C-alpha cells in the first residue's frame, strides 16, 4: 500500500464542512471524529489529515502531506513552494472569492498605501502584509492580530489588512477600503515531488475532475421539452450556448425532444421565450454533476 | 430606469418565508434584511417592499406599489379595487386555502347567522364580518380582536369570525363552526393603472408563469421507463392524462422509452400496473418546474 | 370497508421517523399525533397503529394487526409465528443490519459461549439469549436489563447480550465481542391468516414493491451522456451491469444518448473512464425510485 | 364562593412571562395552559383570565373582569374609566417605562406636531394618536398599522406614533423623535364598582402590597457587618438612608452587629468606605422582598 | 479504604438530574461521565454507581451496592428485602408522589378491580400488578409493556396499570382511573447487612440528614423584621409555628428583631398582617437548608 | 473628565462572559455590543475596551489601556512590563488555574525537556516556549500553531506546549505530560505610570476589593443557629476558623444566636456535629460577597 496512498489535507475550521460537503457530492464520504485528526474516507487509497487552512501549505511543502485543500491567501502568506492542481471556483453567492484589503477609519487621512509610512497595522496575515508593503516601498509596523481585527482602528492601530467577502463587517465598524491586497479562492495544492509520481498525479487529477463537475453543476438545472421539428431551429436559437443541447427523435416523426442544461438564473427569462417559440411539456429537473 | 421598475410588495410575517421560497424556486433570489423593508432581489427591474399581508391591498390600490402578494381575504377586508393577476394554488397539504368561519361555543344556542342579532362578535377581520352580517340583514356588535380570538367565547363574546385551516384550534377551544364566511387563497394582485402599462403587465405575467410552473411541479415527479413497442399501447393506457407522455425511439428498434410527469400520490398505484403491463427499467426522478 | 382495510403496525420509537420517511418516499403520507396511537395515512384502505417494535410481532400474530414493520430480532425474541412479506434492505451506512452480540470485559476469562456456564448475563432480549444458551447447552442466569446494559460488566454481571451497529459503544466500555447471537434487519411481517386473503396479500405486495423501489434508489444516481455511435460499444463496456442502459437515437444520426443508473459510490471511478472513452455532455441527476 | 372571587386579567403576549414571574416572587403560582385562557393560580379566591394587554382595560371597565394588569398606554388608548390600584414600578433596566413617540425620517421637514397638518400617520395606537393631535389642534390622517410601523416612513407614511424603550429601533430605521406622546408604565387596574366591594378592595390592596414588595427588592441586597461600639456612629453615617439599619447587641458588649438593605449599585462604593470606617465581617446576601 | 467505602447507587434516567441536584444542594458534587457508570463524587468515602431506578433495589439487596436512591414502587415491584433509611419528601409541585393506578377506557364496563377477571392488562410493573390482583383474588393476563402503555386500551388491552402524577396523560387518552394500586415516593434504601455496620449506618444517616435539610428548605424563605417590644406578643401570635422565631435584642432597648422561617406560600397572607401588627423593616430572604 | 477616566481592558473570547459575570456580581453592569469594541459600563469613570486576552498586556504596557484583565500566561508570553494589581483566584472547579505543559505522544522517547534538542514543537505560546527552552539550554524548532495543537504529534511535530485544565484532552489524544511550563491564573494588571496616579490606583484597588469579595463568597454559605449559652463554647469549637462567628444576645437571656460563614463543602460535615452539640434552628442561607 505504501506507493498507493495519497496523504490529503482537509482544512479544519470554517472550510471543513464546505469541503466535506463538496467531497460528498463528488462521491467521497469523509467522516470526522472529535478525537482524531485523521478523518475517515471511503477510499482506501486516500488518507485524510485534518489541518488548519493556515498551516496546510507548510505541511504540503514539507512533504508531510501529498496534497491539500486551502486558500490561495495562505499559500502566499506562508510563501510555500507547492503545485496548484486546480482552482475550486464556487459559483454560489456565499462562496465568492475572499479579498484581503487594506482598511482604515472612514475619517482617516490615509488615502493610499503610501500614507502608511511609519504607521501601525494589525493583521492575521503578517507575511502577506509585509510583502505588500515591501512591493510599495513602505515602512510600517505590522503586528499580529489574534482576531476581531476590524474593531482595532483607530484606537489600537492606524490601519488593518483583513479578509472580507461583502465588506459589511468593515462598514459596520466605520472602516473604508483603501486598497485590495490579494484576492483569494480555494485551491487543491500538491507537493511538487508527489505530483511527479504518475499514480498520485492521476489520482489528484481525477479528484479535481469530480470536484469541478460538482461545482459546475451548482446553480444549474436540466430542462427537457418537446418541439415540432418545424419549430426546432427557433427553439434552439433561444437556448444559451452553455452546453450543446441533446435533440432526440420521438416515435412521432414530426416531433423531437430537447434536453439541455441551463443556469438557474436564466431559466426565468428563457422559459417564457421557449413557450412562445412552440415548446411544450417543458420540465425543469435538478442535476448533481456536469462534465462537458 | 423610471419606466422599467416594478414595485412589488412581499408579505411580511407568516407568509414571508413561503413567498421567498416560491420565488427562489422560480429563479428569483430575495434577501431580507432585519434593518430595512426593502428586501433585495436579483432582478434590476423589480423593487421589493416588505409589507404586512393585511395592508398590501391598500398600498397596491393607492399605487404606492405596482403589485403584491397577499391573501384574497385581506383584499376583501379592505375593499380594495385591484387587478388580480393570478391565483397561486398550492397543492401541498400545508398550503390549503384558509377559511374564515363563524364559530360559537359547542353548547351555544346560536345555530345560524340569523341568531347573531344583538350579539357580540370578536374578529381580526372587522370589515369582512360587517359585510357578512349586512348581507344577511343581521345587526350585531363587532369588536376588533388583537389575537387569541378563539379563547374568547363564551366569557368575553358570543361568537367569533376567525381564520382556520384544519379547524383543530377551534375544536380544542370547544367551538363549533356555524357558517363559512369566506374561503381565501394567495393572490398576485396589481394596481389597475400599472397593469395597463404593457411592460408591467408583461413582467407580471412572466412572474406569474414562473410561480405557477413551480406550484404545478409541487407534489409531482418524473417517470422514465422502457417498453417493447408491442406493449406500448397497453402501457400508455395505464398512464393518467396529466401531460402527454414523451415516447422516444431507442437504438434497438423493438423498444421505446417513455418519459412522463405524474402526481406523486398516484405513483404508488401506477407503478405496479406499469410493471404488470411490461414496463422495465422504471425510474422516478424529482422535478422543479413544469409548463404545459 | 370491513373487508378492505389493512391494519398496519408502524414501529414507535427509534424506527418511527425512518419508517415514516420511507413510506413518504414511497408515496404514503403518515402523520403522527402526540395524543393518539392511530397515525393518519393518506390511503383509506390502510389503518395505521403505532406500536413498539418489541411488541409488534406479538400483536401481528394475535391478529390485532394484519401486518407491521419490525426488526427480525424482535420476531425471534417473541417467538411469534408470522409471515415475512419482505426484508427491507437499507443500503445506507447508517442503516446497516444490527447485530446482537455476546460481549464480556476485555480482560474476562470468558472466551466462548461455553464459558458462560453458571454466569450472570444481562440483556434486553431475554428470550433470544435463552434460546442461544439452550442451543449451546449452557446454563446461566439471564436477567432483564432496563437499559445501559453495556456499563454493567464486570461489576453487576459477567456478560451481556446487546445490540450493536458499529461496536463503538462496546469498545468505549472496554467490552470484547465473544460471539454473534443474531444479525437482524427490518422486515414487513403479516399475520398468516391475513396473508391468505387475496386483497390483503396484493395490498401488502404492492406496499413492499414501493418500499423496495425507494430502498433500491438510495445511494444511486442517474447518468445521461451523449456518444458517437462509433464509440458506443467502448462506452457501454465501461458501465457496470446494474441496469440495462437505455440507448436512444438523436436527431444527428451519428450520435446516440445513453441514460443509465449507477451506484453513487462508483461514479467517481466511472466518469473519468467514460470521458476517456469519448462520452460528452455527461450529466448526473438524482433519482427517487427504481424498479427493474 | 360567588362573593369571594376576584376575576383578574393577566396580560397575554410579551408581558405574560414577566407578570407571572412577578406573581411567583410574590407567592402566587400562576400556570398557563396552551389550551385555555384560564391560567390556574394557587389561590381559590382568584380566577385568572389571560387577555391581551390592549383589550384589558375594555374588559375591566365592562366588569367582565374585576381587575387586571396592563400598561397605562392601553388604558388611555381605549379611554376606559377604571380605578388604578397601583403603579408597578420596575427598577431593572429592562423594565423601564415605555414611551410612545412621534417620529419622522431624519431628513423630514416635520419639526413639531404642528407640521403634521394634512399628513399621513401610521400607528398601532389610533385612539392615543387622535387625542394627541386634537390636543394640538392638528388635522391629519391616522391609519392603523398591523406592525413593523417603524419601516413605513417615508415611503408609506409621513410620520409614525410608535412605542420605544431605548430608541434603537427608531435610529436603525433613520427616524428622529419629534415629540413624546405618552410615557407609560404597568398598572394594576380595577373595575370601579368592584373596588367599592370591601373584600375585593382588601384583596387587591394585599396583592398590590406583595407585588410592590418584590419590585422594591429588585436590585437590592442585604448587608450584615460587625463593628466596635466606638466606631458605630462613623459606620452608620456611611450608610445611605434607604432603610433604618438594624443594630443588635452581640455577646461581646464592645461590639454590635448591623444589618441593612442597600441598592446593589451603591454597594461597590459603600463597602470600601465601611471597611475604612472599621466594619469587619462584611457579608452581602440576597433578598426577595422588602416592606418598609 | 476497604472498610470505609460506601457503595451508593444513583438512579440513571429521569431521576438522575433531580438526584444530582439534591446532592449538590446538600454539599456533594456528583459528576456524570458519558463513558462510565461510576459518577465521580467529591467524598472519598463514597463510590457512586449509576443504575436504573428499576434495578436499584435488586442490586442493593444482593449487596453489590450498600445503598441507593430509588422509588418505593420499584422496591415493591422487585420484592427486594432492603432497609429504608429515609423517605425523601419533596414539597415542590413537580415532585409530588407518583401513583400507580388501574385505568380503563372512559366507556369501559370495568368499574372495579373485580371486573378484571379474565381480562388483559398491560403494564411496566408486572410484579406490582400481579400482587395487586392476587390481593383482590382476581385472575387476569398481565403483559409487560415496553412503553406508551396509555395508548393501548381498548384496542390492544382491556386495562392498564400505569404511573401518573397529574392524570393528564390518562385523560388525554380517554382513560378513567378505577383504583389506586400504589402511591410511591423516592427513598434512600440500604442493604440490611451494610446498615448493621456502624460506620456505614452513621454515614447514611448523615447523608439523609443533609438531603432532608435541603428538602425541608424547598418552598421556604427567611423573614427578618423589627418590632417594638410592646408589639412583640402581637407579632409573634401572627407567625405560624413552623419553627420557633429567634428574637434578638437591638441596641435600642425598646426594639427587638425577629428572624424566622416561613412557607413561601403563606408569606403573601402573613406580611400584610405583620405590618398591621406593627412590624417594620420586613425583609424576606432565600435559604438553602433548615435543620430543626 | 480627562483625569478621572480609567481605561479598562475586558478580555474578549472565552474569558468575556466569566469576566462580565464577575463584574456584575461586584456591582458593575457591563454590556457588550456586537458592533463595537467599547462595551458600556454603568460607571462614568470607567471606559471599557474589549480586547483579546493574548493582546491585553501589550496594550496595557503601551498605555493605550490603564488596566486590564488577562491571564498571567499572556503577560509572560508577551514579556510585558506591567503592574499586577491582584490575582483573581476562583474557587470553583471550573475556574482552576490553567497549566501550560510540555506533552509528547505516550510512546515517545522524550522523557524530559533535555530530550527536545533538535526536535520540532508546536504551540500557541511561542514566546513562553522559547523562554522555557532557553532556561534549560535546549535548542529546538518552535512553530506557531493556529489551533488543534494536541492532534499534531507525532505526525506533524515531536512535542507540543499546550494549555490544559484537567488534562483530559491530552489523554484523549494519547499524549503524556513531560513537564509543567507555567501555571497561570487570571490577573488584574495596570500600566505602571497609570498606577502612580493616586486616583487611578485607588479606583483599581476598589475594583480589586469588590471582585475579590465576590470570589471569596463563591462556594461559601451563611449559617445561622441558636444555642443555649451553656452550649455556646462547645458549638463554637465545632466551627472552622474561616471567619469570626457573630454571637448575638437573644431576648431570652439563656440563649444566643450565632451567624457565621462556611465553605459549602464542609457544611455537610459540620451540621451533624453542630446539632449533636446542641444547636437548634439551623438555617443555611446564600451569600453574595464577603470582606473580612
Automatic annotation (TrEMBL), chains A, B, C, D, E, F:
Q: Does the keyword Membrane apply?
A: no
Entry GO MF terms: ATP binding; ATP phosphoribosyltransferase activity; magnesium ion binding
Span of domain ATP phosphoribosyltransferase catalytic: 52-212
Pfam entry (one): HisG_C
GO cellular component, as recorded: cytoplasm
Relay the activity regulation note. Feedback inhibited by histidine.
Q: What is its EC number?
A: 2.4.2.17
> What protein does this entry describe?
ATP phosphoribosyltransferase
Q: Which PANTHER family match?
A: ATP PHOSPHORIBOSYLTRANSFERASE (PTHR21403:SF10), ATP PHOSPHORIBOSYLTRANSFERASE ATP-PRTASE (PTHR21403)
- The keyword Nucleotide-binding is assigned to this record: yes
Q: Where in the cell is it found?
A: Cytoplasm
Cofactor dependency: Mg(2+)
Q: Where is the Histidine biosynthesis HisG C-terminal domain?
A: 217-289
> Which family is it part of?
Belongs to the ATP phosphoribosyltransferase family. Long subfamily.
- Alphabetically, which GO biological process terms does the record hold? L-histidine biosynthetic process
SUPFAM superfamilies from the entry?
A: GlnB-like, Periplasmic binding protein-like II
Cross-referenced InterPro entries: ATP-PRT_HisG_long, ATP_PRibTrfase_cat, ATP_PRibTrfase_HisG, HisG_C, N-reg_PII-like_a/b, N-reg_PII/ATP_PRibTrfase_C
Amino acid at each position: 500500500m505504501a506507493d498507493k496512498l495519497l496523504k490529503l489535507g482537509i482544512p479544519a475550521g470554517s472550510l471543513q464542512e464546505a469541503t466535506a460537503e463538496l467531497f460528498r457530492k463528488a462521491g467521497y464520504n469523509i467522516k470526522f471524529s472529535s478525537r482524531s485528526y485523521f478523518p475517515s474516507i471511503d477510499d482506501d487509497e486516500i488518507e485524510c489529515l485534518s489541518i488548519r487552512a493556515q498551516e496546510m501549505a507548510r505541511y504540503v511543502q514539507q512533504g508531510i502531506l501529498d496534497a491539500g485543500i486551502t486558500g490561495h491567501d495562505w499559500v502566499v502568506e506562508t510563501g510555500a513552494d507547492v503545485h496548484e492542481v486546480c482552482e475550486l471556483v464556487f459559483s454560489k453567492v456565499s462562496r465568492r472569492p475572499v479579498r484581503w484589503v487594506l482598511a482604515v477609519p472612514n475619517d482617516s487621512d490615509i488615502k493610499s498605501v503610501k500614507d502608511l509610512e511609519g504607521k501601525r497595522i494589525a493583521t492575521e496575515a503578517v507575511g502577506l502584509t509585509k510583502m505588500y508593503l515591501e512591493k510599495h516601498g513602505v515602512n510600517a509596523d505590522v503586528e499580529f492580530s489574534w482576531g476581531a481585527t476590524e474593531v482595532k482602528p483607530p484606537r489600537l492601530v492606524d490601519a488593518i489588512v483583513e479578509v472580507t467577502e461583502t465588506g459589511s463587517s468593515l462598514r459596520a465598524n466605520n472602516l473604508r477600503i483603501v486598497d485590495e491586497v490579494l484576492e483569494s479562492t480555494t485551491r487543491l495544492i500538491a507537493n511538487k515531488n508527489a505530483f511527479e509520481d504518475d499514480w498520485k498525479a492521476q489520482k489528484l487529477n481525477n479528484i479535481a475532475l469530480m470536484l469541478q463537475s460538482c461545482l459546475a453543476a451548482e446553480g444549474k438545472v436540466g430542462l427537457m421539452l418537446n418541439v415540432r421539428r418545424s419549430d426546432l431551429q427557433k427553439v434552439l436559437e433561444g437556448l444559451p450556448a452553455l452546453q450543446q443541447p441533446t435533440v432526440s427523435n420521438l416515435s412521432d416523426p414530426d416531433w423531437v425532444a430537447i434536453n439541455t442544461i441551463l443556469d438557474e438564473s436564466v431559466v426565468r427569462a428563457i422559459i417564457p421565450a421557449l413557450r412562445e417559440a412552440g415548446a411544450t411539456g417543458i420540465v425543469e429537473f435538478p442535476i448533481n454533476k456536469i462534465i462537458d
